[in-house]
Write the structure tokens for this entry.
Amino acid sequence: MTDEDPLDVPALQRRLAEFAAARNWQPYHTPKNLVAALSVEASELVEIFQWLTPEQSARVMAEPGTAHRVRDEIADVLAYLLQLCEVLGVDPLAALSAKIGRNELRFPVPGSDLTEPPTP
């Protein structure tokens, strides 16, 4: 267990890198392999929700066993995504911020100055 701030992305990336290095996993942590692992983990998260109704999916965190599985799969997805970002030299928070900015321009709020006036 470490004393780092759990929201410190670079510290989490270092911790993941140290974990992999201690097990000599770095040769396997290529972009291709990390993307494949990310896809597998995302699919495992999808599997939990696959046959639930929208109402059931909204309550998935109410059942402790299922909630634990959801948290674990989210953690796995995030771990592989952070490792991929580390290998590729991508700042994930900067990438997200830039993407939100592009989406704000691409999908302006209806009725805002960036959209055409509403049709009467």
